[in-house]
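lol so apparently i was supposed to do this last week
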Amino acid sequence: MVKAVVGANWGDEGKGKITDMLAEDADIIVRFQGGANAGHTIKNKYGKFALHTLPSGVFYDHTTSVIGNGVALNIPILFKEVQEIVEKGVPKPKILVSERAQMVMPYHILFDQYEEERLAGKSFGSTKSGIAPFYSDKYAKIGFQVCELFDESALKEKLARVAETKNVLLEHLYHKPLLNVDELYETLMEYKKMVEPYVCDVSAFLDKALKEGKTVLLEGQLGTLKDTDHGIYPMVTSSNTLAAYGAVGAGIPPYEIKEIITVCKAYSSAVGAGAFVSEIFGEEADELRRRGGDGGEYGATTGRPRRMGWFDCVASKYGCRLQGTTDVAFTVLDVLGYLDEIPVCVGYEIDGEVTTDFPVTYKLEKAKPVLKTMPGWKTDISGIRNYEELPENCRKYVEFIEEQIGYPITMVSNGPGREDIIYRKSPLK
Ligand code: GDP
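anyway here it is w/ guanosine-5'-diphosphate bound
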């Protein structure tokens, strides 16, 4: 059976922690989209890790970690991550890489930087990991699948052809050094050496595993609001962050995905540019940022301070709907224990009308938050394992949000560790 762990919001909801936790009962964990542009932070018995490419289930010795065809694969980063975790005492992971996964090329990273420079103040706030140029090339059919490393003469010919068009832009648009085909080829031969032992037909592997009754976890990156199609376009990522894309990006039948665990954080945070209706500023934001997550809300990849906001029921209801949520994992609730009152965004006012439906981008930019204030609980809830033991106001907060978003909150996370979880029977399930 297949379960997906995905985000309802702008990313950084705590998917890494939930995946790491659920991986205990899984056999295979698959990354199916995105690249090294966002990180999952995981804290467990081996230490604290920021993973960018490896699936978050990599810390167990019974699991296989898979890079699916939908991923933007940065080969040196993948192997650097493997090395880093092994150095910290994690058992050497079993890794498989899809022969159909495409590679982030060194020039994708350069083009990402050059384009952000060119756009200056109008940039998308890219992490400059090459993701947008990578996916552009993939769909323009000038990308490179891992399997192409093994067809060397065709590879060289294609590299020369691609470099020709890239060099026109480098020379005339960006005024930067041109690509050297021989150097690129040498780099790819290095990549080949690194990746060769792990390359396989991932969809065939998963097909067999599912027939044998294995449990597969699909791990999403970012969240619904960053989805290329359904997010806040164009301030989105360049891949689909929805569980549905897990079928494409792993190569499995869509009907195999039986559980969709959508992770929602108890307040909001976002990175990069784009409308963020429930955003807060000043001291109020600084305090939540400082106390947030595990050691503050700063980007796992870039270290950038995240933009902060109150929980947004409109965005989260939409985020859960597009994911096809069967269960909500509600995370980082412990962080809110310092507040006397907790505002929650329950509607958007757009041109004088209030809606609870998440709109398209140009309307979103005009939206003002309609806030409802909930009483705080003013205690530390970390360490609690039974839902009934949570303070009454804390339960009221969870139940109010569940009612607003309309999807069952069956897990409440009250700390960064694997064991910091409260399972809950939801009236919606
Ligand atoms: P991801 O990209 O969705 O995996 O999210 P992040 O890596 O940004 O994770 C959010 C941060 O919150 C990480 O530092 C986690 O260790 C931490 N975290 C996850 N769940 C909880 C929780 O319930 N409470 C606290 N305090 N921290 C959490």
